[in-house]
Amino acid sequence: MNETTQEIAETAKITADRMKEIEKVIVFVKEVSKKINMLGVNAAITAAHAGSYSKGFEVISKEIRNLSGTTAASVSEIETVLGDIRQSVDHFSDQLNSSLLSLNSQSAATEEVLASMEELNSAAEMMKELASSI
To answer: First-to-last CA distance in the chain?
Structure first.
């Protein structure tokens, strides 16, 4: 039981480590989203300078900014879900550690009971031998 609990604790740690890797990817995607937004703004400025000759470019700049906004919103949702998962993993890990401590304590108590039973058994054997010798 103790071994299984320790394996579960290790799995929780691995999960927490993997979540850190996901957070790094999220930071990267945020940076890309910001850069895409800047490209969209620059494209809009260029389209405005070009006037009526750049209607297609203006549409592209709007789509680029929409893509940036959608990406930022998706990243925000991912961060929220990841935060919820992190809280769950942390809570699970805390409960698991508490269970492990309790299990260790119960194991020690069981060993003490077994030792006492062995002593009682030895005492009973001595009394049996003593009674049979009388």
So the answer is: 48
The owner of tokens 């680029």 is 64
Choice between 9 and 80, residue whose per-residue pLDDT is larger: 80
Tokens matching residue 34: 């910001």
Its pTM surpasses 0.70: no
Q: 16 is written with which tokens?
A: 């927490």
d(CA 70, CA 74): 6
**Residue 2 near residue 107 (C-beta atoms within 8 A):** yes
Contact 36, 75 (CB under 8 A): no
Beta-carbon contacts of 78 under 8 Å, excluding residues fewer than 6 positions away, are 26
How distant, in Å, are the alpha carbons of 43, 54, 74, 130, 133 from that of 60? 8, 10, 21, 102, 106
Answer yes or no: is pLDDT of 1 > 70: no
Hey, is 133 helix, strand or coil? helix
Write down the residue that tokens 């993997």 correspond to. 18
Q: Using CB atoms within 10 Å of the CB of residue 40, give its burial: 0 to 12 exposed, 13 to 18 middle, 19+ buried.
A: buried
